[in-house]
Design brief:
This is 3-hydroxybutyryl-CoA dehydrogenase. InterPro entries: 3-OHacyl-CoA_DH, 3-OHacyl-CoA_DH_NAD-bd, 3HC_DH_C, 6-PGluconate_DH-like_C_sf, 6PGD_dom2, NAD(P)-bd_dom_sf. It is a single chain. The protein has about 290 residues and is of the alpha/beta class. The protein is built from 12 helices and 8 strands. The protein has helices at about 20-25, 40-60, 65-75, 80-85, 100-110, 130, 165-175, 195-210, 215-225, 235-240, 240-255, 265-270, and strands spanning about 10, 30-35, 75, 90, 115-120, 140-145, 155-160, 180-185. The longest helix is centred in the first third of the chain and has 20 residues, at about 40-60. The structure holds 3-hydroxybutanoyl-coenzyme A.
Amino acid sequence: MNINDIKQICVIGAGNMGHQIALRGALSGYKVICTDVSDEQLKKAEAFADKYLPGRVAKGKLTEEQAKSARENISFSSSLEEAARDADFVIEAATEKMDLKLNIFSQLDNICKPDTILATNSSFIVSSKIAGSVNRPDKVVNMHFFNPALVMKLVEVVKGPHVSQETADVTMELARRMEKKPVLLKKEIYGFLVNYLLASLTRESLYLLDQGIASAQDIDMAVENALGHPMGPFKLMDLTGVDLSYHISMERFLETGERKDMPSPTIVEKYVRKEWGKKTGKGFYEYNK
Ligand code: 3HC
């Protein structure tokens, strides 16, 4: 598989990450089919593309032709079979549940052409945990984008022990062609680079909140105005999803059994109440839906 062989991409999941990864691919000239089990999610993703592209033209960030061509490049389908059949590269951005990912990858192995690379955008599941479910483990790789995926430049590519050099090289180059800045992790590590680092800030911020030392708003204010981060940890969790923070902590805790990895009481409470951030209209802040 050579980078120039990649013409068509399948993005699985039209949610928080998938709809923007798909659009980024289409903007970079790839034919992209975005698929999801939820028709409602697919409709939302299509509506986003229909609003975003003209918005970029109005802002002078895209020409009419670029927007038109990106819109023609992207399509939406509720059929995994249809979306993945002719894909040269698959980016899975489905819900962060291990059994779901294993099921998707074993289906992909049957549907896709033998050379197709199967990447996961998972925030924390290393691809060696998924590679056993397919007959092409050398072609299963982490390709991790950041939220909002149309804006954030970084992509982490992780070369687990089963990943071929060719797969790592093609994935790095695809990220570059999608106008991202890829970094290569030479070994698998939980959280990769960014979430590994971010976890400590988030954990300590939740500790300060749970101890009643300061409000979420004031902790965000401190991080933004003293450390220069564009968003404090609570605003960021609202953006990426409090449900995701819960799943990340829970998976980690089940793996290590260490107290520090347990989801904080606030996260558990917000998870149960479905206060998941922007996507549900309320998290640490309130949003107009
Ligand atoms: N979707 C697409 N584009 C968006 C967007 C969104 N949700 N939000 C903002 N943008 C674009 C705007 O269109 C604008 O583009 P332009 O400058 O080219 O016209 C640009 O981003 C700046 O937007 P705004 O001026 O409205 O807002 P801000 O300057 O406040 O920027 C932000 C918004 C880019 C989200 C900025 O606050 C930021 O960088 N926040 C930090 C995000 C971050 O840390 N992401 C990583 C999260 S960790 C992660 O994803 C890992 C995962 O595994 C959990």
